[in-house]
């Protein structure tokens, strides 16, 4: 069952009912100001950091669903009122449509002869959200209506905002000037920033106190101000500050009017406010101010006034929206496929790349499943997100690499997370996730292959954000590589540490001696448990490091690294292969995990993908046998489950993984992230039919037909789909912010379609279904544009028979770098 449709021409997904199976959202902003917006205008906004710079309030797990806050509008017409986006008033609409596009959302609702269309977007280079509201009288009668706006301010730190009520209820402050409502809480004594909500028209009233607007025992669905049709002109003094305008509109039959609302964020430079105390820094790492002159709290409104003036007219707003669309058209043109499969085309050309941008910007911090409070930017997460983003804006990828490396610890490990506002490691989480360092190597090699920018290796980069510990980035890579081989267990496999990629496989957190009761559980030091997955990562990523060292002329380091990689392959095949597949790990007592000897959890997906990608077992058929076992034991119609059989009881020595019900999350759920590793592995051994089949199982466009089961957005990947052991098999959770986005783009663009950046050019190495005859790729690479046609006359999956570039045959399968800024015609014949 569908709840909308793809409009590929406009790069939009069109939702035709407000009652989707779960809120289907979009993201606005791609630089510093970000917003989440649902198909009924729910969600919230923040500047850079969803925890420390939250601008509007949102309540997760709210009842009814998605009525925890948003940017809401109400139309009042002679006693009747409704919301054009359905929520929050939830009055029946004669017509409804939501169009989620690239960085914008358009919601249209019609009732009682009034059609209202609201376009929400964040313009480029702008710290604010613009709402263009168009109201049309579709009736044959004169309409005198009132438009009420509404949003609720968050008191900046989302953690404190949701917990410290004894203080919060006494600190909320606003200021109203004309048609602008300023949120200035904590401006007086602590910070140099504020927010505002404006409209480019005279207002007949306003409200800035939530209780006054709603009524003490009323909700967003029935605010008493709107029901009465008259604002209270309330000014918040503590309690819960909001911003609401009332605009009176008179419309002749068929007449329309347009308004511009702006939700903005502003920071003043030091000289624009008052004297700062030198060196004073608050807990968020930001400058503190001294008390304002005479104890006043008057905002310097210059920044806000400039922002409001920039989009004071509809013409200026429309131009900004055109610029945003042009921006995305250019970004998405950097990799484009034209094939016989529309679903493949729209995923590769539009939605997958769009989602890669969002995950790059936000890591795992703020979605409808991540509150923005618990996690900032993840070290492993952000390094992986970069893989699907680096071709779009390489300069930003470069900056991100330096930010990440700056949180690395001197021993080569890393803080697991950091806050994007301060860019400092999160002490509460710490490090000791032993897969983390390797991801930095993979991100750096991907960046250099894309750009040819070897100079990044010489950038002096701090350890632990301490400038006195700074070393060239190349030193960071070496320490990351060495962190693995300096932390090996009794089998010569890497120690898992606190966890590897699977955060729920906690083999050192708590453990007990075999046969002893649960009461004797003791904390362990984590010096025994080993990860076959990290070992597989090391063979794959470690070889990338060795190749890079060779490219920069560090032959001694390259030889050393390659020797360690080859040794690890030997160890894996000796101690990490279980007869038909690769083991997952050894626990704290040296017992196998992911073995046929186990009662439950006999096979795990992660090590199968990375060990094959790392060239383990390629020459003796064991890699193929492992992937055959994946299909047989982990395969389902909705994708590959993470492990099998599912755990049906709690294993204290395994940690969190066995606490989930069977079929959910890490306990035999379909973890879409690691499905891509199997696609890549199948491509490595040349089985393109199988690789693409796995791709279609989880790619969102292919799930649209059963949206009532899948529930989440049919245009972006979810982290997890309930597995075959679950009661709700096929239902997705945790959409948008997932490494699934970047890895599936890598899998389809580089491994299946086969256009892979390398140091010396573009490698052509597809692994496609044998029945494919032809497809085309356009790819921008280092300033040149390549128009590549791949034909498959012999119906093979893998193998380049001939490569012709600009009518000249090229030996091998790498298109050289021309560096002339021109378009080059490429023809590839498989065989």
From TrEMBL:
This is Glycosyltransferase 36. Residues 11-270 form the Glycosyl hydrolase 94 supersandwich domain. GO terms for molecular function: carbohydrate binding; glycosyltransferase activity. It holds the Pfam family Glyco_hydro_94. It comes from the Bacteria. Keywords: Glycosyltransferase, Transferase. SUPFAM superfamilies: Galactose mutarotase-like, Six-hairpin glycosidases. SMART domains: CBM_X. It comes from Lachnoclostridium phytofermentans (strain ATCC 700394 / DSM 18823 / ISDg). One of its GO terms (biological process) is carbohydrate metabolic process. Residues 327-754 form the Glycosyl hydrolase 94 catalytic domain. The keyword Glycosyltransferase applies.
